[in-house]
Amino acid sequence: MELDQIVQEVQAAVANNDWQQGIELLRPLPAPDLAYVLCECDPEMALNFLRRYTPKEQSSIFGYLRPAMQSELAELMSRSELTELFALMDHDERADLYNRLSEDERLSILPGLAHAEREDIRMLASYEEGTAGAIMTSAYISLSQNLTAAEALQRIRQEAPDAETIYQIYIIDDQRHLIGTISLRDLLLAPSSTKLSSVMVTDVIHCRVNDPQSEAAHFIAHYDLISLPVIDDTDRLVGIITHDDALDVTQEESTDDQMRLGAVDGSPAMSLKDASIGTLYRMRVFWLVILVFGNVFSGAGIAYFEGLIESMVALVFFLPLLVDSGGNAGSQSATLMVRALATGEVRMRDWFQMLSKEITVAVLLGVSMAAAVSLVGLVRGGAVLAFIVATTMILIVIVGSVIGMSLPFVLTRFKMDPASASAPLITSICDAAGVLIYFNVANLMLDFPA
Fold first, then answer.
1. How many whole angstroms separate alpha carbon 401 and alpha carbon 404?
2. Is the pTM of this model over 0.70?
């Protein structure tokens, strides 16, 4: 059964005051799907269903809820419910929730938690958003290098229930400095009496708490890691980032880049469905107003060549076609280049190589598009007009492609996000350039004084 259909049936059951039927529909669902259904319900209904699960099940489901729903449920929960939930949630997820609570809510739940849990929450919640420290968890297994394989396995059995992952174990010294790592597989295959110091890997890939979270996610993807250890400025192990958290970061970064490419200001974690009209307005109005003034240059270019347009009105027919082609070519180039820069495929030093390749591709594209548009020009205004629009098409596509390819490099050079080279921005620049190119080419071909 589709989740949306389950949502409708659950809401219908509640409307008939048949909560038992609703819970029977929800029981078979895994936690992520159950969270999706609850997010489609109003908060009071969702909380009523959530209370029908054990505290441990609640903590698992809660982690998959959208941040907005988590905050609303936290406001509706009693102090004892919220405190119990915090005690059972994954360490990184409860730190995120803690940051979204009001000061009064924080003060109400902390006294009910054990001292170690309070300190853990405060520590994880203290790191700046966007850093590796903000997405790490303290639920990992660390052992001394002096333990034997048999002793290590016994310790793992004791600590496994509270650990986020047990497949990678980290070796630390007395000051908690990270000195090695060993996988659970290698540990199981090692002779029982073997010391960890003799089988651990000492060259440990790691990141620091203040490194960008995107860099940590890149490490996990590049080195195919299950988890990545995080150390502080004194090289002490303070947490790990798991592969599922890295995947969330990658998704957020991709969403953020797409929003920037669309010239939209907003948080990638925000739900578009739940966003208010005012929020959507604020996300989009700034760039659209800015680009209105950018398009004034296109209008000024057209006004400058009014005499030329009066002498050959047929030129106006091709104006939208030509300038849009430049914007489209530029947007394509920018999209490819932003992705290449983000993934590390292309570096600043590759600009000249990419420029020569882009010009070659743009010439081929421009010639292909010119061949098509020249036929229309021939029908609309004869051979001269066909030659004007064909030549303009080639030039506009080349210029648009170069602008689209180069702008992300320029932004990167000035330490700015290359995704800021949004499609609307590039389109506006290419429109203004296209108008000037088109009418200047026509001016030269027709030998008309500007």
1. 5
2. no
